[in-house]
User: Fold this.
Amino acid sequence: MAGFRIERSTPTSRIGFGVIVLAILVAATLPFWAGGATVRLAIEIFYYLALAESWNLLAGYAGLVSIGQQAYVGLGGYVLAYATIILGLPPLAALFLAAPVAALIAVPTALILFRLRGAYFAIGTWVIAEVFRLVALQIFSLGGGTGVSLPAAVVLAVAPSRFARDLVFYYLALGVGLAGIFMVFFWLRSRQGLALTAIRDSETAAASVGVDNRKAKLAVYVIAAALTGLVGALAYLMKVRISPGAAFSVVDWTADVIFIVVIGGIGSIEGPIIGTAVFFVLRGLFADYGTSYMILLGATAVVVMLVAPRGIWGAIERFDIQLFPVQRRLRMLSDESD
Amino acid sequence: MSQLEIRDLVAFYGDFQALFGISLHLDAGECIAIVGANGAGKSTLLRGITGLLPVAAESVRFEGAAIGSLPPHRIIARGIAMTPEGRRLFPSLSVEENLLMGAQCGRKGPWDLARIYGLFPGLAERKKSPATALSGGQQQMVAIGRALLANPTLLLCDEISLGLAPIVIRDLYAVFASIRGEGTSLVIVEQDVSRALSLADRVYCLQEGRVTLEGRPGDLSREQIRLAYFGT
Amino acid sequence: MEWIDTIVQGALLGGLYALFAAGLSLMFGVMRIVNIAHGDLIVFSSYLALVVVQSLGIGPFAALPLVAIGMFILGYVLQRGLLNFTLGSDVLPPLLVTFGLSIIIENGLQQVFSADPQRLPAGTIDTASLNLGGGLVVGWLAVIVFVTAVAVIAALELLLYRTAIGRAFRATSDDADTARLYGVDTRHIFAVATAISLAVVSVAGVLLAIRTTFDPSMGPARLIYAFEAVIIGGLGSLWGTLIGGVVLGIAQSVGIVLNPAWDLLAGHVVFLLVLVFRPRGLFPKLVD
Assistant:
């Protein structure tokens, strides 16, 4: 029998790797050559990217479509508020509390939610988000329905000057965004990741070769929750003011993210990156038009879903291009040229 | 002109080619058997005829018309009914409701509920039961009855004997005399060759998506059939 | 006595929830589609009723049949022209397309009608009450809604189990391919299912608009109530959906009495409890 080798990089993915390194270098130095508004926009882009990658991991790879990730955004934000205001923790410490707390809460939540399948699961996630929101309304020490602002002392504890704070937030956001991408990337390269892709392609086939669907899905749900919680904490540390209506808003935290992933391309790492770019361009151009802008987003998502279900990247992918080498290719040794 | 004419039929499931140019014909009132091993393409052929699998329009001609690209609900309206492989009764429906689904296409003819109950006496008493609560043999009767209620001029039977005891199969096959008596043409697809040969006027053998043998049962030897069925 | 009153109010409220849920249940039963825009379509029909009432100068109950017919047609066109193309083995397309629709409808309504709350005036029926004896007084409107819910569900059951088209619905739900084999044009059947679903939705929408004020953002909450009623009652059973609605309504009413801020939360908690302890609902029927 001919020998074979499993390999992951392809010529284009090697170029892609170079592109990524370049992009990281640009991003790493941005605050030193761009204006404040650009920096703040970049921060937003990074954490939407993190949200998009984790939503994509859930929906595109584990087949878990969630319209309730805002539950963990709000949870992260409220963990931050509680830890800094009530517990008096330093803000950055409080920030890093968000992910583990979100992960912890995600476990029993998932076990309940997994009793629902398909679209009913999706609505279930929305119910959970509603429950979290209603509970937050009852936390009177954090302002109940009107919400609460982080005290000035907390804000200053991040860094004394505006510029320094922007710097801290920028690199935190960049870290979160990269964490989002590379977490998905390394997860998919792992054995669990292969299992996940198998589940995505065919659940029954995966189960028949012994892939434990439930454990894989649970792991993905928890990871997505953790990352989403971290984003929530960071976002509200920057916004300074949190309220249940905003922190658990479907439109701000879920509709936009879904749009990003659908347009960019579900089920690929590159898709959400493209989707985020497109989203922010559209937002820059049309957000002033309020409801018309939202209608445009909704209509675009509908059209893309019907015409190009794998999004923009899906259309490009047809040419066998891969930026992130996650696919495994079977290469027969007899194909080697030397 | 033949009632059913298949010419160079090819069929794909995605990238996988299942049929490589099947040609066969059936005259009105005839009974032909299509035999072959698992995976030979028999069910695929029937799916192509009934529209469940889209094929080139010209490759299937029924009563002169090219039907290959028509959707299934139009094909049964033209008079081709099938008892699918595995029977495919509707679990949420009772026996009678399953039978009545056959009449959904609204074709007129000699078959009605009373006549079906006459043909299969055991079914009348169980007509309100959920169809899937019946024994395998009775379910097969429901499946055949359902197809007959469509008053077809051509009846396709896909693996009727699968999973049934010989005595049950014998009872089922006995029914075909009445069916043929109405002038209905029959296509019997079977893995059980001898059953098929006992009933059919002519037989085709399929192997890996191709016709490997054709002829009258009397004219073919065991050895020829074995070769055509299994290959070398 | 207080408690009986609370429970009765809750049960009658459940009628409204059952109406919300019936259309959702039908669409899922026949096509396995969960329409995320379901709640927004309820609100849409409230606005449609408003337009009909204002432009024709008739009362809301007179407008109801017109709205129902309009929504029936809309449902047929929506399914045949859009949603049919999302059907397949993948769960994602119908879900995301209906999610997109939800956003479009909500924002479209806001653009045309503004975010101000509206109400369909129905004259004296709003406040008329019925004395059931023993100190128990209920609103006429609440009773009408409940009776309508029962009537609609009974009609749907009749349709599903006593008619040829109902048989076609159930057969298609079981096995769409074999249904096609036996003469069912599934593109048409799916469209009729959605048409009926939206007609039921419109009844819910009109009654909702009479009962309370409405605005474009109310859709999601209605979807959640509908969904919870379906899950509590059990997938595949329409009468179960009625029971589910009643349970939900009672939970919310009891919740309010315990603490004014707990009405919605109480409903969600009961829903989650059912999900944990009886995941198939109280009266499941669906053969999956």
